[in-house]
Design a protein that fits this description.
Blueprint lengths: L22 H9 L40 H10 L5 E2 L2 E10 L11 E7 L9 E2 L7 E4 L5 E12 L5 E8 L35 E10 L4 E11 L5 E4 L11 H15 L18 E2 L28 E2 L30 H5 L6 H16 L6 H4 L7 H9 L12 H5 L3 H4 L44 H23 L22 H5 L1 H10 L25 H10 L7 E2 L13 H4 L8 H9 L6 E5 L7 H6 L11 E10 L5 E12 L3 H4 L9 E4 H4 L6 H42 L5 H6 L6 H12 L5 H5 L6 H12 L7 H7 L15 H24 L3 H5 L2 H14 L2 H4 L6 H5 L8 H23 L2 H5 L19 H8 L2 H11 L3 H14 L19 H25 L5 H4 L4 H4 L27
Antiparallel strand pairs: 1-2, 2-6, 2-8, 3-4, 3-7, 5-6, 7-10, 8-9, 11-12, 13-14, 14-15, 15-16, 16-17
Helix pairs in contact: 5-7, 5-34, 10-12, 19-21, 19-23, 19-27, 19-30, 25-30, 25-35
The chain binds fe (ii) ion (FE2).
Family: Belongs to the lipoxygenase family.
Pathway: Lipid metabolism; oxylipin biosynthesis
Keywords: Dioxygenase, Fatty acid biosynthesis, Fatty acid metabolism, Lipid biosynthesis, Lipid metabolism, Metal-binding, Oxidoreductase, Oxylipin biosynthesis
Length: 1073
């Protein structure tokens, strides 16, 4: 009789582990966790090399009683009453159950085989064939999702008491057999050769397996697979959840550990082979897939691999290359390859506001086609093939010069984007302090009704399809979304299929509803979001209750420390002329409350509190010469470069009250031709004190701020957001999968910080950062956008300074004596608390497994990872001489030498993926969708003193002046496009994992306790942030200096928890949107 004293629930690793709903649930689960089997907790465990037992003939299983695996107690009872645990010829009868979350159709659950491996005895079971079990049955889980379960009794050798791993194989159908067993994991037994199948045409048979549960009379062991098992794979191994350093791996699992890594690494040959859907190989590739066409204006240079355009690597997709080294575009616009387990869950995909980015863009274009009344096909016909071809045709038609959508007419016209959402409160959005009393009013500022194709009589934008057309579009969008689910029902996994539906589809039916399955169709229909909702913009929080905030200098400065891009500001510790700027004391002294530029700079340089701050975007001049020569650059986009100097204002008692811009320096490609005496590094200086006091030149000052924010928008999106989070993290994950086993404690700690990153980055390469993608369309640099991203990586990115404290130090934003920020800097203040909790957690966790620095040095998997990240993932900066040495780029040279350094490396990655990304991602809608606050485009060169544009602006009446300003900023189509896109990107999905939630990959109790302490710290941080936001002394949160029309805007972007939706708060573990 097998006897194990305690029951066990082993939870293993998988990136897409389902989220635990609450801490209480975690605590309850923890109480049920069996004592660990990690050698770290069993120092006296003897590891004796034993000969593997000879294979036994397959057991003849006895069907067991039905049992609900959600109920451990009932499961055990069922096992006992059904004879589980009884011995037979030295074997013990267990009950085994396989669960999936995909629909029960086709051959799901069939032709699966298992081998169970014991951790301690190293004994392996004979091959268990599930086809002798009862057929799979449909199940509904407590959260309402449906799938299938297949269970049966198995006879395991008596030596198997603590399964440490389960090998799983899925055979193909008869027609797919090739007779060759895959040895991918090195696990298949000889006797099974000839059984495993692999369809070389890619038509593999596969199952999504969520869990495999083994129940004996006294114990329950659950292995979480959460992965697709394919007939193309041969044997797959899934381990129990306990963590082991490589040297501590139980002997029974060593080969499997190495075999699994080898399968993910591939060989030098297979790494570069064309990818099939079922492939699992991770390898690196340059960004050679950004072109959207074979030639002409849709070709983009390769980023990465050259001195001129260094860049991190991305996941290799291997579609084959064109002659010039660019990767071929996928055929028939199919999705770029991605390992199936890295794809979005169905919930996540659904939460892309009910559609993928492609759907969104398609809907948008369909609407534009309608609005422009072109002869393009109907929206319904357009949708399935939208985005490419017709897209340009449509856009070029409606952005025609005479098109009424070319410009907003005045500021209220911009606000009208929110008229529908604000309803009777619309008037509260209108600014009250826009003009000084003496400003010249227009003769007639009453806005008479002028309904048009694009506007209603009350001036609201009418960005809507007719009800008929909208319904037609909705129907097609619903079908599009059903597609992947339907695909999965045929046994072919596709995008986001980790959910299940009724399996009542009729594949051959001509009627859509029948073909998709009526219940499934109903489900999707109910969830359909009307296309019209994409064009009903909610009031952004930067405006809501703060009608005058956007035009105030105090708000401009506040956003540099508490807005969407709070990590570019630096303390000014040298005179601007030292770095080639034209800003001088005359421009700023009048705003410095009795001090001078020279005084304040020298005080800061001597170690005193800085009162002047700088944001320098001169790097945006990098490609001016190329853009000027390029006939492919569109007209009407102007890339400015420049700087802003800000002053930290104080009250009579010396308390800080606001950060205000005092001088803005701007230049564009023609500035130096018009001003030959100007230094090449300098622009035209716009002085607050000289411009904002005069009602005529106030417009110039406002425009200078707006043009600056346009630059800020580009640097935010390309630098702070894409480059510094999404892009740089990808190689760390590719190498993690290749070099560090899922059994490794570092894998278990870090995997949640990469959840969905590969998919969101792949989607970005397909639709956002590619040639003519959304980013190129909405920024002034257009086809040079990603070249700027490469330039920013080349000039500014160092891993060593991505750790928050180092970043703040490098920018001079903290007092070196205390490490505390010099000023009310919410991003830094909340971020440092988060950083501190993160590093403390990581330190505790790592010391559970590493007992000395030498154990870190000798960890072969870890060091292979770190070396590969540097040499294969981020090779360019050192290779091409952009950095002096490894210390500058990585913080230290060579292998990771100590636990402290390892903690710093991992915490930096985790911070970038969580806090840093959340801070720059989830405020995008509320700050950057409203073009008066932030316009992504600048369409005209900034006027210079005395030129015609300056005269035009300074002599116009109010409304005309507003209309002129708006010709410099984003047009309505771009504004709507940006709003739609950033709304999507600011959105938390329902299955998001935020830092206040458990890392389910951790099983060892001490590791769980460390995780629990971190979660508690995150809850405490939420409370601390709330209190800071309620304290009127915190000018950057409370906004007191801005008065009642400015109003407070609490800083919540680093509050860890969030509901689903656009919430302007919540810190997910990973870059997943
Ligand atoms: Fe993001």
């Amino acid at each position: 009789m097998a006897s194990v004293n305690s029951r066990s629930i082993n939870i293993t690793d998988n990136l897409s582990a389902k989220r635990t709903k609450s801490i209480a649930a975690f605590a309850a689960a923890s109480r049920r966790i069996r004592k660990p089997r990690s050698p770290c907790f069993h120092p006296h465990r003897t590891q004796v090399l034993q000969e593997k037992p000879s294979r036994q003939s397959p057991a003849t299983p006895t069907p067991g009683e039905s049992a609900d695996m959600d109920d451990v107690g009932r499961g055990l009872k069922a096992a006992q009453t059904s004879g589980m645990g009884s011995e037979s010829a030295g074997n013990t009868i267990w009950k085994c159950s396989i669960r999936s979350t995909t629909p029960l159709v086709g051959d799901t659950g069939a032709r699966l085989s298992l081998v169970v491996i014991d951790t301690d005895s190293e004994e392996r079971s004979p091959v268990i064939k599930v086809d002798s079990w009862r057929p799979p049955r449909e199940i509904t889980k407590s959260d309402g999702t449906r799938g299938w379960e297949r269970e049966g009794a198995v006879s395991l050798p008596a030596g198997i008491k603590a399964p440490g791993a389960v090998l799983v194989r899925k055979k193909g159908g008869a027609s797919q057999e090739t007779g060759a067993a895959s040895q991918e994991t090195g696990a298949a037994s000889q006797e099974d050769k000839g059984g495993a199948s692999q369809d070389k045409k890619g038509g593999a048979s596969q199952d999504y397996i969520e869990t495999i549960t083994l129940v004996s009379a006294t114990s329950v062991h659950t292995v979480n697979a959460n992965s697709w098992v394919s007939s193309a794979h041969g044997w797959r191994v899934f381990f129990s959840g306990f963590a082991y350093l490589p040297k501590d791996t139980p002997l029974a699992l060593r080969d499997e550990r190495q075999g699994e890594l080898k399968a993910l690494q591939g060989t030098p040959e297979t790494r570069v082979e064309k990818r099939k859907d079922t492939d699992r190989i991770y390898w690196f590739q340059t960004y050679n897939d950004l072109s959207s066409g074979k030639s002409g204006n849709l070709v983009r240079p390769v980023l990465g691999g050259s001195k001129e355009l260094p860049y991190p690597r991305r996941l290799a997709t291997n579609r084959g290359n064109e002659r010039d080294g660019r990767e071929k575009a996928p055929k028939n616009k199919e999705e770029y390859w991605l390992q199936q387990d890295d794809k979005f869950s169905f919930d996540k995909k659904e939460d892309f506001q009910g559609a993928s980015m492609q759907g969104l863009e398609a809907a948008f274009l369909a609407l534009l086609a309608e609005a422009a009344d072109t002869t393009t096909p109907s929206a319904a016909a357009l949708l399935p093939t939208a985005v490419v071809g017709l897209a340009k045709q449509v856009v070029s038609t409606i952005t025609h010069k005479e098109n009424p959508l070319a410009n907003f007419e005045d500021f209220q016209d911009v606000l009208a984007m929110y008229m529908k959402a604000s309803g009777s409160d619309f008037k509260k959005l209108l600014p009250k302090k826009l003009y000084p009393a003496e400003a010249t009013a227009s003769k007639d500022e009453t806005r008479s009704g002028k309904a048009s194709r694009f506007k209603t009589a009350d001036g609201a934008w009418n960005f809507e399809l007719s009800p008929d057309k909208a319904a037609e579009v909705d129907k097609i969008m619903a079908e599009q979304r059903v597609g992947p689910v339907y695909d999965s029902a045929t046994g072919t996994p596709a995008e986001g299929t980790h959910s299940s539906f009724e399996g009542d589809s009729k594949p051959d039916a001509s009627n859509t509803e029948e073909r998709l399955g009526s219940k499934l169709f109903d489900f999707v229909k109910r969830k359909t979001t009307s296309i019209n909702e994409y064009f009903s913009f909610k009031v952004p929080r930067v405006l809501d209750g703060r009608p005058d905030a956007w035009h105030m200098d105090e708000e401009f400065g506040r956003q540099m420390v508490a807005g969407y891009n709070p990590l570019v500001i630096t303390a000014l510790k040298q005179l601007p002329e030292r770095f080639g700027s034209a800003i001088r004391g005359d421009h700023v002294n009048a705003d410095l409350q009795g001090s001078t530029l020279e005084q304040l700079v020298s005080e800061a340089a001597a170690g005193g509190k800085p009162r002047l701050y700088l944001v320098d975007y001169w790097a945006l001049s990098t490609f001016w010469a190329d853009m000027e020569k390029d006939p492919g650059m569109p007209k009407g986009k102007v890339q400015h470069a420049g700087r802003v100097v800000m002053y930290l204002r104080k009250d009579k008692d010396g308390n800080d009250t606001a950060l205000i811009p005092v001088a803005i320096e701007l230049a564009h490609p023609n500035t130096h031709k018009k001003n030959p005496k100007l230094l090449p590094t300098a622009g035209i200086v716009y002085s607050r004190s000289q411009l904002s006091g005069d009602s005529r030149t106030l417009a110039v000052w406002r425009l200078a701020k707006m043009i600056f924010k346009s630059m800020d928008s580009s640097v935010h999106q390309l630098g702070s957001h894409w480059n510094r989070t999404h892009c740089v993290l990808e190689p760390f994950y590719i190498s993690l999968r290749r070099q560090i086993s899922v059994m490794h404690p570092v894998y278990k700690l870090m995997a949640p910080h990469f959840r969905y990153t590969l998919q969101i980055n792949r989607d970005a390469r397909m639709r956002l950062i590619n040639a003519d993608g959304v980013i190129e369309q909405i920024v002034p640099s257009d086809k040079y956008a990603m070249l700027y991203a490469s330039a920013l990586y080349r000039t500014t990115w160092n891993f060593a300074t991505e750790a928050l404290p180092e970043d703040l130090k490098a920018r001079g934003m903290v007092d070196p004596a205390t490490g505390k920020p010099w000023l009310d800097y919410p991003y830094a203040i909340d971020g440092l608390d988060m950083w501190s909790a993160l590093t403390s957690y990581f330190d505790t966790y790592l010391r559970l497994y590493y007992k000395s620095d030498s154990e870190v040095l000798e960890d072969t998997e870890l060091q292979a990872w770190w070396k590969e990240v540097k040499t294969e993932g981020h090779p360019d900066l050192l290779k091409f001489g952009h950095r002096k040495n490894e210390e500058e780029l990585w913080g230290f040279a060579g292998p990771i030498p100590s636990i402290d350094k390892l903690q710093r490396v991992l915490a930096t990655i985790a911070w970038v993926a969580s806090g840093h990304h959340a801070a720059v991602n989830f405020g995008q809608y509320d700050y950057t969708s409203f073009i008066l606050n932030t316009s992504s485009l600048s369409r005209r060169p900034m006027p210079e003193p005395g030129d015609a544009d300056w005269k035009e602006l300074t002599t116009a009446e109010r409304l005309a002046q507003e209309g002129i300003i708006l010709t410099y900023l984003s047009d309505p189509i771009t504004a709507a496009k940006v709003s739609s896109t950033v709304s999507l990107l600011s959105h938390h999905s329902r299955d998001e994992q935020t830092l206040d939630e458990v890392n389910e990959l951790l099983v060892d109790p001490k590791a769980r306790a460390a995780n629990q302490a971190f979660m508690t710290a995150m809850k405490q941080l939420e409370s601390a942030i709330e209190m800071r936001n309620a304290d009127a002394r915190n000018w950057a949160r409370f906004g007191l200096a801005m008065g009642d029309t400015g109003g407070p805007l609490p800083y919540t972007l680093l509050s860890p928890g969030s509901q689903a939706g656009v919430t302007m708060r919540g810190v997910p573990y990973s870059v997943s949107i």
